[in-house]
Amino acid sequence: MPVIEFAGVGHTYPGIGSTPVLRDVTCRLAEHRVGIVGANGSGKSTFVRMLNALVVPSTGTVRIDGLDTARDARAIRRRVGFCFSDPDAQIVMPTVAEDVAFSLRRRGLSKQEIADRVAATLAAYELADHHDHPAHLLSSGQKQLLALAAVLVTEPDLVVMDEPTTLLDLGNIRRVRETIRALPQQVVLVTHHLELLDDVDRALVLHEGRIAFDGEPAEARTYYEGLFA
Ligand SMILES: Nc1ncnc2c1ncn2[C@@H]1O[C@H](COP(=O)(O)OP(=O)(O)OP(=O)(O)O)[C@@H](O)[C@H]1O
């Protein structure tokens, strides 16, 4: 399981009058499943974007298995798969199959190996019938599943998911939950669907850029609900 270490992490996005989005965040995460909840704007996306060096902290360091995200971004991105909450930000190729295949480029696989892995992945996410479908014409939920499939086909060591179920119907929420449960890899998951916390080993509650709670998922849920009481 990769070890994630945040040491004194602070972040302020550039801009006049911007206030810190993360403040003095220190934690070590090595659990199989980690959940992150918090109010809108509390810093969750910024926190998880640091896991694959999409955002580099203004102060402090983020390390994945000892690799510093400020120095080793390329090596980190080979190990950390990132699923955006907005699938349109991630879908890059014209058709569904081409988009999943794109994730496997430059990996030294034969055309047949790529085709086999793409077909198996699409079948696993109920997208097999949409193999040659234009990706941008999928429904929102199907796009979210495609984005997830395109990340998982690369078999990353750590899977980061930023609100993976926001656009999904009940059936697809269940499908994604089952998928996450079955993943052998470490998963860090940001969600507003609190029931997803039932599946994690440890939960963080972010509040105004700080870790306000860190511990048992059920207690995290109570703590988070208390913020809105
Ligand atoms: N690229 C950016 N440039 C400037 N400000 C940003 C950028 N990304 C995020 N912010 C600001 O940082 C703050 C925290 O945003 P972040 O997306 O990390 O929060 P979040 O907890 O994921 O919120 P939500 O639940 O709404 O997705 C917000 O005030 C947001 O406006």
UniProtKB/TrEMBL annotation:
Residues 4-229 form the ABC transporter domain. Coiled coil: none annotated. GO terms for cellular component: ATP-binding cassette (ABC) transporter complex. It holds the Pfam family ABC_tran. Keywords: ATP-binding, Hydrolase, Nucleotide-binding, Transport. One of its GO terms (molecular function) is ATP binding. It is an enzyme of class 3 (hydrolase). The keyword ATP-binding applies. The keyword Flavoprotein does not apply. Its EC number is 3.6.3.-. InterPro entries: AAA+_ATPase (IPR003593), ABC_transporter-like_ATP-bd (IPR003439), ABC_transporter-like_CS (IPR017871), ABC_transpr_CbiO/EcfA_su (IPR015856), ECF_ABC_transporter_ATP-bd (IPR050095), P-loop_NTPase (IPR027417). PROSITE patterns: ABC_TRANSPORTER_1, ABC_TRANSPORTER_2. Belongs to the ABC transporter superfamily. This is Putative ABC transporter ATP-binding protein DR_2469. It comes from Nostocoides japonicum T1-X7.
